[in-house]
Each structure stands twice: as C-alpha cells, then as structure tokens.
Amino acid sequence: MLAATDSQKISDNWKRACSIYPVYTELSKRFDLGIQPSRDLEAGEAQNSTESLVRAEQWFREADKRIEVHHLRKLLSQITLDENVLHAMLARHLGKEPKTESDRDKIDFLLVQYLAQCLPANVPAHELSLEQAALVLKPILGAASEPTEMPALEQCIESLNLCHSLSDFLDHMILERGRALKVAGREKPFDPSSWVAFTRFSFLVRLGAIRLVHEDIDALQQDLKTLESAGVKTIDCRSADLSEKESFESIRKMSEKWKQSFPGKYSQNYWFTDVVRIRAAVRQELERLEKKKTGAGSETGQTAGSSAGEAGGAAAKAGQAQLGAEVAEYIHAISEQVKSVKGARAANAIKVGDLRLMLSSEEVSAFRETSGDVNTLLQHAVAVRAVLLAACDKPDAIDLKEAKDLAQSEATGLQEQIAAAKEKSDTDLMVTLTACARSLQKAVDKANKA
Length: 450
Prior knowledge:
This protein is mainly α. It is 70% helix and 3% strand.
C-alpha cells in the first residue's frame, strides 16, 4: 500500500499533468503537429494512478519532440495561460532529465512569460532589478535563486538603455551578444541564480525591442505624413529589397505587421533590418526635398566668398587650434570625473561643467586606463562628442560649424577602424567602436538640428 505522502505526490503530479494537457492538445491542433490524444489524460481526474502517471509522462516526452519554442511563443501571443498552468509547465520542464536544447529554450521562454505575467503592477518593468526578478521567480526556482549579477549581461542591458532606435539596437548587437552569453552559460552546470539573470535580461530586451519598434514605426508614420503633404506618393525602397516606387499604403501595411512583435522564431527577426532600411529610405526622401528647397538660396551666396579666402583660412587654423585645446581639456576633465566615481558602470551620466555626458561601459573603462590604442581612440572620440554638444549649448563659446566638421572627421576615422576590426573578425572591438560612433552621430544629428 502506498504511504499517504506518496499517494498525495502522485495526486499532485496527476493534477499538474491534467492542467497542462489542454495546452499540448491546443498546440497540436493549431500547428498541425499530429500529436495523438492520450487515453489516460483524456479521462482526467479519474485516471489517478502510478501507471497512468508513467504513461502520461511518456506521452508528454513524445509530444515535446514535436513542439518547438516558437510554437509556444505564437500560442501565448494569442492567449493568456493561468499562472498555475504556467507554473506547472515550468515545473515539468525543469524536472526533466536530461534536458535537451529544446527543453532549455522552452524554459527560457516560459520563465520570461511567467515573469511578465506575475510582475507586480507597482514594479517599473523597464527598471526591473535582479532582486525584484528573483522575488517573482522564487515560486518557480526556489530559495536557491539568489540574485547574482553577471557583468557581461549587465553591459548588454546598459547598451540597450543607450539605444534610441532599432538601428542602434542592431549596431549594439544586443541579441547576438545575449545569445552568445546564453550559449556559454549552458556549458556550465544548472544554476538557478543564472536563470534569474538570463530571464531578467531576456525580459528587458523584449521590452526594449518592442519599445524601439513602436517608436521607429511612429516616427516612420509621421515622416510619411510629411511627404504626403508635400505631394510625394511613392518611395524608392530598393535598398530594402522592395520596389523603386513603393506606395505609402504598402509601407503602412508592413508597419502594422511589424507591430506584432516577435512572430515566429526569435532568431528570425530579420524584419528589424526591414524597419531600419525602409525608415532610412523615407528619411532620404525627406532630406532630398529639404535640399531641393534650400538649393536655390545657397547658389546666390557662392560668389561672395572668394575675396575673404585668405582671412577665412587663417581663422580656420585658429579655430582648429582652439578645438584641439578643448578636446584635450575634455579628455582630462572626463578622466578625472570617471575616476572619482566609485564602481562606475555603463550608461553613467558624467557631469563635466554644465555638460551631462552619457558613457558606455567601454568608454568608462577607456578613461580609467592610461594607455592602449583603443582607449586613446575612445577617449578622443568621446571628447570630440563633448565639444560638439557643448557647442550646441553655447555656440558663442565654441564655433558650431567647426565643431561639426571636427566631429564628421572623427566619425570617418571611427568607421575606418570599425572596418578594420571587421576584417580581423574582432567582434568585441567592432561592437565597442560602433556604439561610440552611433553616440557621436547622435551628437552630429543634434548639431544639425541646432
């Protein structure tokens, strides 16, 4: 005869199996997976025995071979599972031994889904801390899931916080860096604390990507309205592998599809690139119209400048000398400020005089070191960015045009270094320099508007 505790355990496991069985049958039906029904599980609570539980577990294992994580993702984008059902599904996959790669992918996704559904309303999702994530996941991962910070993941999150568009998101290689860290993490023994860190990371990346997608689409829609009011009816979208005369209606239909974030497999988000390319094509058309408007006015002023050539050349040299001194001063000032902040990490807001400057983790490290070609390169690029931003705020103190010319020259140099890093397959350096170049370009864009 079974002991009372054994009987209760079998009963609990059977109830769990019965609670998740409808999810499996729905997956099979929606995606035509051809999974045959389970006689035991179809009988429900009536089949509460050791033998039926063993057969049910075997049925689940066979079904798992046909169900992929993208099936779960698609289903849960259309329906919401009860918290207890999610808990039961996670408990089953976490209890499986050995775990396949597919099992690990499903656990990753279901943990993020559980975190999203069970996060208290008073916790700001975009600022979710490790401690808060661990508390929400404690019913799943247990008391062993004490939050342990993983510096490489934190750097990815901080890079995400620096992104202002999908283009930034792709340039920072957020998905690729996270995926590489996840693969490396799976080579180590199972550790609940690492699951907390990776779940929080995936949750924040998902939120951040959705935010950037919607912001890019909103900006795209506004640009389309501006073009329509100017009488434009089509866009040359060949750079996005579309037609030379793509209609606004077609672009808007694609935008609606993009808003359904993360359809299909997570690794197949090639449409991120589509958003970036199409938005760039639309912006290019806007710039063409702007140049057309200002072209006539610029032609009338070209004949008046030749007589002042020599004086202008001398002034330019003096301006360059001043900017060189400004760059050197900012390198020194930023270095002192960074070194004075204990434990400074990425996305630090460094205050230099009246200027507030955001630095990535790599840029912070560069200012803490005293040698190295890459550190010197980053220090100079950040200082040039600071000079340009200072010129935007106080054009009477620093010539804005000269600061812009200096920044453009610096940007060209960074692109050459990025190309060299790419040829050497130095991904880390390429990511670091690309992020620095994007921040500099943001400053240039601000200066252009000024």
